[in-house]
Amino acid sequence: MCRMFYTQGWVTGTGGGISIRVHDTVVMAPSGVQKERMRPEDMYQLDAKTFEIRESPRVKPAPHKPPKLSECAPLFQAAYEMRGAGAVLHSHSLNAVLASLIDEQSNEFSVTHLEMIKGIAGHGYHDSCVVPIIENTARECELTDRLREAIQAYPKASAVLVRRHGVYVWGPTWVAAKTQAECYDYLFEAAVRMRGMGIDASKSLVSQPLKTLGNGLSKHVNGDAAVGPAAKKRRLDGHTLPTAVVLDIEGTVLPLSFVADTLFPYAQKHLRSHLEQTWDSLETQADISLLRQQVAADSAAGSTTAMTQRVPAAGDGKDAVLAAVIANVEAAMAVDEKNPALKTLQGHIWHAGWEAGDLHACLFDDVPPALAQWHSQGIKVYIYSSGSRAAQADLFSHTQQGDMRQYLSGFFDTSSGPKEAATSYANIGLSIGAANPAQIVFATDTMAEAKAAGDVGWCPVLVKRPGNKPLPVSHGMKMITSLEAILRI
């Protein structure tokens, strides 16, 4: 595989990395070596669970440098742990780099209606194939937390793009990982070339007719307008089905009280212990850095915020930093402030709770069957919440009714924009790739959010649930009391 990927231009200049799991061992190519000249004795052998080195490559005489374990190792470990991978590959493919730059403001790469999408596990020709994009760092090992969050937030993806760097790809076997890498690279190149032709690869062309066929019947890209599997999939009892359904969380799929009565108290109770126990981890130090930046930015902008206490620099001592972080977070949680720094830290605290079995989300009874029904009909379902994407994925993977992620195509948070801003829904629509905004249904319990979605052409639906805040008497919006009613509006 090292030689094969070299000829593809993916691991030239000693870049990239390749690893394969064999029972309880991970075999991994070293860093800084000519990949096309690799031999069996040049490989590292790592413990598959701990990633501790079991056997190092033999040391070659000068001018060869001593072998070095790649900084990809902790990133590879993330895919092995979180996806049960049998092989994980890292490529510096030029196609991957260019694909990450198609839209530098987006945290996703998306394509649809391309034949090679069928080569990506769990995807078909009509699907939107979405790959998360994370920002690059000076050192590769510093990408680990970002990669883990992306893997958690995008359960259907078998790859993560690193902007201006390359791509990580995995599969259950080395054959599957190789296939995924080749198919993704084809899709990256196709999207880049289509962009040069003025075509957006993330959007379907189903509304554009093809030439009239010999029998005089005008066909369409997605099948005949009246007959065929595509048309049947898009109709139910005379109704045209939406392309996508986007769901809010609180007051829509679970009680409004769940966050206030369960998640917030859990975060408050475990805030100090979480910080103290994970203080030296890259994740927690990144959370603190983000909080420090948030407080400084809000102060400089004169923003109204509950987080007003300056967070000292790391060199000022742990006690001072810890006290400031706790004071700011507790103040922000008391008024339910929704800033990225707070939501990221909360998500990490909750993640520990989900994993420990301390937390379980209880969805409304109509939610699981609705998700399953939409999934069977080919309707894509997404979540849009103020909580981080990783926190959303945690919630839906730990419900009392089971893991719901199998029915979801992706998660959106406030990195797409505030929930009451119309531009946020426009951004999400671009990521989803619906040919017509009216094909996207958005269900929420909040009037301002519904209006913002409607302003960009979406089909907003207000959800009335027990315990929700009262809605204006003459709101003029469609309203439902069960998600199963969405297809009947």
TrEMBL record:
Name of this protein: Probable methylthioribulose-1-phosphate dehydratase
Required cofactor(s): Zn(2+)
Pathway note: Amino-acid biosynthesis; L-methionine biosynthesis via salvage pathway; L-methionine from S-methyl-5-thio-alpha-D-ribose 1-phosphate: step 2/6
Protein family per UniProt: Belongs to the aldolase class II family. MtnB subfamily.
InterPro entries xref list: Aldolase_II/adducin_N, Aldolase_II/adducin_N_sf, Enolase-ppase_E1, HAD-like_sf, HAD_sf, MethylthioRu-1-P_deHdtase_MtnB, Salvage_MtnB_euk
Binding site for Zn(2+): H90, H92, H165
Active site: E115 (proton donor/acceptor)
Classification lineage: Eukaryota, Viridiplantae, Chlorophyta, core chlorophytes, Trebouxiophyceae
Biological process terms in GO annotation: L-methionine salvage from methylthioadenosine
Residues reported in the UniProt entry to bind substrate: C72
Domain Class II aldolase/adducin N-terminal: 1-192
One GO CC term, this protein: cytoplasm
